[in-house]
Amino acid sequence: MSLLENIRRNANLYEESVAYHYEGPNGCQKELTWRQVDDYSDIIAEYLEKTLTTKKPIIVYGHKDPFMVICFLACAKSGRAHCPIDLFLQEQRVQSITELVEPELVFNMSEKSYPAEAKTVLGMDWLEQQIKAPKKKTCFEGMREEEPFYIIFTSGSTGKPKGVQITRGYFDHFLAGKMNTERGIDSSRRHVFINEVPFSFTFCAEDLYLSLYSGGSVWAIDRALFSNVKALTEIMVRSGGTILPATPSFFKLCLADEAFSEISFRSLERIMFCGEVLSNHLVQQVRERFPNVEIINTYGATEMIAATDIVITDEIERKCHPLPVGWMRPGMRVIVADEYGKEVPEGEKGEIIIAGRGLTAGAGYFKRKDLTEKKFQDWVIQGNRYRVYHTGDAGYMKDGCLFYGGRLDTQIKLNGFRIELEDIENNLMKIEGLEQVAVVPRYKADQVKSLTAYIVYKGMEEDPPHYIKKKAQEYLPEYMIPKKIKIVSSLPLVNNGKVDRKLLSENENV
Ligand code: AMP
């Protein structure tokens, strides 16, 4: 069944129970029932069908407001892709996305005015009025499998954001593949999913959309509340959340509150990590706080959502350094290949190339044929035609399981030595007392001259930089030990919860 079919089914089954809950600043709470999700999106979809003359994507602007969900689904029902933009995005970036998308319509589901020029902008008051009318139409054409369901903009190497298109077919395939498997969602249960990332990140497929698909409920927490970790814990406890999809950085943030543990947060059953390296150290910290919670590591990218997953058992945590990112989802294949696209033997490092049954010709970058052709190709593997995506990640296979080995594009040369920055970071993390580390290169005339490690240190040593450098000799050759060690209280994060390497690098190279 497709996402839209499941939503209709869930609305009929769960009618007045909560499908979506929003927690905002100053005690603001908003909710949508299952019935409202389906009915309101029908009303808005009918408006779109009647009013719009093109099938151009529609921009939905805001931050986690329940009406954003209504707009997303209305777009899909009326056969249009939606393009979510979060409030944190700077004006210039919103402008450049708007110019590229050329939307016939922008839904502004926020209190702020839309920061770019657009033909028509409809706000929350408009939507509020519309949904008061009884719905007339319930059957919509929707979109074809190969048409984009959404377009998510991520930073691009050109300096302008690039739009990643996820097709309806692939998205449905992703959601269906997540149900009723060992590491998936048990459809006989109604889970409460906690949402931490904004909807302009693919990662929300793991909470918002899995919940809509499986008939659970979502607790979306406004990012404005992240600065008060105690209040954040209190909200999560109150949510009765059973599944927490989280970046490791977000989880580390939560650990700052002692109350963030199984003793108070009793409902939590599963943590799904994604988006960043999950370290053994963090798994040990999770075990200390949540001894009975299942830990899953998933690996993916905006271009393919999550491609792999694995339950991190005690045995895996003991045996594997680094931890694996997992097994392929049903219908997906991984090829670890050399620079010529030839599969390398098991255990050898190469580029991770993902082949997906649902990755169709419609997958790729919005209005970027050049980039799409570079990153997505059609391959024949063992007689079957697949569309493949070149991740730019390094990795290797071991007993059929995928291991992540850093970004291919953060490889540097220092005094002729080839170095992966993540290699240094993973090794430094073995030193006791280190909470977080990011290593950035220092450039002179476009050449890397030295490395600086930004470190969050919680150990007892009096002179941490000296101690870390000395200890690092146990794990790293001399040339890989960062020249400078800067102790910081926290690492800056970008809005999707990952460490902001760009900012650190800019600081280092002023
Ligand atoms: P994004 O498109 O923002 O989701 O970033 C995708 C990138 O995040 C991937 O290409 C990887 O480099 C990294 N990534 C995603 N999941 C993991 C994981 N489980 N472990 C390590 N790196 C990851």
Molecular structure report:
Helix 1 crosses helix 2 and helix 2 crosses helix 3 (66-77). Strand 3, helix 3 (66-77) and strand 4 (82-85) form a beta-alpha-beta unit. This protein has 15 helices and 26 strands. The chain is globular. Helix content is 28%, strand content 30%. It starts with a helix and ends with a helix. With 510 residues, it is an alpha/beta fold. The strands form 7 sheets. It has a 5-stranded mixed sheet with strand order 11-12-13-14-15. Strands 16, 17, 19, 20 and 21 form a 5-stranded antiparallel sheet that branches. Strands 2-1-10-9 form a 4-stranded mixed sheet, with helices on both faces. The structure holds adenosine monophosphate.
* Cα radius of gyration in angstroms: 23 Å
What ligands does this structure carry?
Answer: adenosine monophosphate
Low-pLDDT residue intervals, each spanning 5 or more residues = none
In whole angstroms, the N-to-C terminal distance is 53 Å
Q: What composes the largest sheet?
A: 5 strands, mixed
Beta-strand segment tally: 26
The fraction of residues assigned to DSSP E strands is 25-35%
Task: Give the class from helix and strand content and strand pairing.
Answer: alpha/beta
Number of helices: 15
Key structural traits:
single chain; 510 residues; alpha/beta; five-stranded mixed beta sheet; five-stranded antiparallel beta sheet; 26 strands; 28% helix; binds adenosine monophosphate
